[in-house]
Design goal:
CATH class of the largest domain: Alpha Beta
Helix content: 25-40%
Radius of gyration: 25 Å
Number of helices: 10
Largest sheet: 8 strands, antiparallel
Number of domains: 2
Distance between the termini: 85 Å
CATH superfamily of the largest domain: Hotdog Thioesterase
Oligomer: single chain
């Protein structure tokens, strides 16, 4: 019996790490302040500690040169545009927030968390048991490209937000667009026709995302059939960000009509009173008088 006891003592069972140790391991590359706040939240449930944890986790995933942007900014700081986070990195950060605070975020909810304030408010609401109701749904380029028939280099929509019958989007003119080399020589100007194309693409995206009958119309094509009341009031050049918006005016299948406008930094750039799209069955290559939107 003594030999058996001795043998048992020589090979003790491994000790399972407690919850605090697991949390410290999860946050091991975060600041001490972040770890302290997360541990305190686990014990007290104090929602006021959430911003410290969230900001600390975000900082852990940032490049050093943008840390000051996070620390010196407010809740309007955007993950992708201001902090340079790609969608994968953002998801990693949010998964760490989930694990640290004990909350669960659905995949479809992740796309709506575009700013630091969005994430903090969302997590606080979740922890407080408040139902989170999104007023508008945001889409990054990955989701836009997955939906749209147009693709690079002829996709002029980089972000989108849909709220009922309206949609907003952005496109930053990089200066690398191939057609700018000839429009014009040594004086690149973004063509007005492409601005109209961008509005049409935003209308297409709105239609594809919001149309409940799209499951019955798989394979259908959407064509640009007309634009009325078009006005251009500003020259747009590389470095400008086109702020696009469209609003559904009317729909009678197979036709959909939007009104659209573009601004740059709050200044009017272009507008169209009507942009008309038509949905054509898959077997039709193109309706008469139409070009693919």
């Amino acid at each position: 019996m003594a030999n058996e006891a001795s043998s048992t003592n020589q090979n003790p069972s491994p000790v399972e790490p407690n919850a605090d140790e697991l949390l410290k391991e999860t946050l091991k590359r975060c600041s001490p302040e972040t770890i302290t706040a997360a541990l305190a939240f686990r014990r007290s449930g104090d929602v006021s500690l959430v911003p410290t944890v969230v900001l600390g986790i975000i900082e852990r995933f940032l490049e050093p040169e943008v840390v000051d942007t996070l620390k010196g900014g407010d809740d309007s700081v955007k993950f992708m545009e201001d902090l340079g986070m790609d969608s994968l990195t953002m998801f990693e950060a949010i998964m760490m927030v989930e694990e640290s605070l004990g909350v669960s975020i659905k995949n479809e909810e992740l796309w709506d968390l575009r700013t630091v304030g969005d994430l903090k408010a969302f997590i606080s609401a979740k922890l407080s048991g408040v139902e989170v109701v999104a007023q508008a749904k945001s889409y990054p380029i990955e989701q836009i490209a997955a939906v749209m028939p147009q693709q690079e280099p002829f996709l002029f929509l980089q972000t989108a937000e849909i709220d009922g019958a309206t949609a907003k989007g952005t496109y930053r003119i990089s200066g690398k667009e191939a057609f700018l080399k000839g429009h014009f020589k040594e004086n690149p100007v973004f063509p007005a026709s492409i601005m109209l194309e961008a509005l049409g693409q935003l209308g297409v995206f709105h239609f594809l995302v919001t149309d409940d009958s799209q499951g019955e119309k798989a394979g259908n094509s959407i064509f640009f059939t007309g634009a009325d009341g078009v006005r251009c009031s500003r020259v747009c050049k590389p470095g400008d960000t086109l702020e696009l918006s469209v609003e559904l005016k009317r729909r009678r299948d197979p036709m959909v009509v939007y009104a659209g406008k573009i601004s740059v930094g709050g200044e009017k750039a272009a507008a169209a009173e009507e942009i008309t799209l038509i949905v054509a069955p898959a077997e039709e290559s193109s309706p008469k008088g139409g070009v693919q939107a």
